[in-house]
Specification:
Layout: E1 3-4, H1 6-13, H2 17-26, E2 31-34, E3 37-41, H3 42-56, H4 62-72, H5 82-94, H6 101-106, E4 112-117, H7 123-127, E5 133-134, E6 153-158, H8 159-168, E7 172-173, E8 179-184, H9 190-193, E9 196-198, E10 201-203, H10 206-214, H11 219-237
Helix pairs in contact: 1-2, 2-11, 4-5, 10-11
Length: 244
């Protein structure tokens, strides 16, 4: 077996190492555990690349990405024509059995994202800011995902508010920061137009939460994103109400 490290496999697949570990655990990739390290089968990486490339097609436009997220949560999407809604539902359903990385690819234009360092004592105040809509780890409690966000945060804001938050909360850009700031800078405020209030907390739709969790470098967090996405897709393919 030609072997790759987890990091090398992640680089080839365009995902983070946590996602590779999840794929190994779930059988999406094959490999051997040697001591505390995984050696990933290079052939299984190539096979996964072929499957994802065949299924993913073009990524969704920002307008369509937020439309897809709203549709899966049973929300109205007045900005989409009925034909667009039909095509989106068909596309989502057609690949419901494919790996979750297809959906990560489709949703990648949802916003621009930067990691910052924020003081732990400021996180609760930031989440309560009028401009903020929670996602990822910051939507875990409202959506009952079994994750804690005491030392981390993930939020969406509009382009006009990002600079204010950086200044007000003394945010420092850092690759290892504990805050993921997604900026929806199209001027359309898609994160606001699709906001749900769950247990009093404004949060983005679950499809967006799921792909944000999948992008986490933490294996447990990434796994929670994959589980949430599968729940959404199962509900859609089985004709159940998708709303949580």
């Amino acid at each position: 077996m030609a072997g790759l490290s987890v990091g090398e496999a992640a680089q080839r697949l365009g995902v983070n190492p946590a996602r590779v570990r999840v794929l190994l655990k779930e059988g999406g990739l094959t490999g051997q555990r040697i001591g505390s390290q995984w050696v990933v089968d290079a052939d299984s990486v190539r096979r996964r690349l072929d499957v994802v490339a065949a299924a993913r097609g073009r990524s969704l436009s920002r307008r369509a990405a937020w439309g897809a997220a709203a549709l899966l949560d049973g929300q109205a999407t007045p900005w989409l024509a009925s034909s667009e809604r039909s095509r989106l539902r068909a596309r989502l359903g057609r690949h419901a059995t494919e790996g979750v990385d297809v959906y990560r690819w489709w949703m990648r234009q949802r916003a621009t994202s930067v990691r910052y360092r924020i003081a732990r004592a400021d996180i609760a105040e930031l989440i309560a800011d009028r401009a903020v809509v929670g996602s990822g780890i910051s939507a875990a409690t409202p959506y009952d995902l079994g994750l804690s966000f005491a030392e981390e945060a993930e939020i969406y804001v509009g382009g006009s508010e990002a600079a204010r938050l950086v200044e007000e909360y003394f945010l420092v850009e850092s690759e290892r920061g504990n805050l993921v700031l997604h900026v929806e800078d199209s001027g359309e405020d898609w994160h606001r137009r699709t906001t749900r209030v769950v247990d009093g907390v404004p949060v983005v739709p679950r499809l967006v939460v799921a792909v944000d969790l999948l992008d986490s470098p933490d294996t447990r967090t990434s796994s929670a994103g994959a589980h949430l996405l599968r729940q959404l897709l199962d509900a859609m393919t089985n004709g159940r109400d998708a709303r949580g």
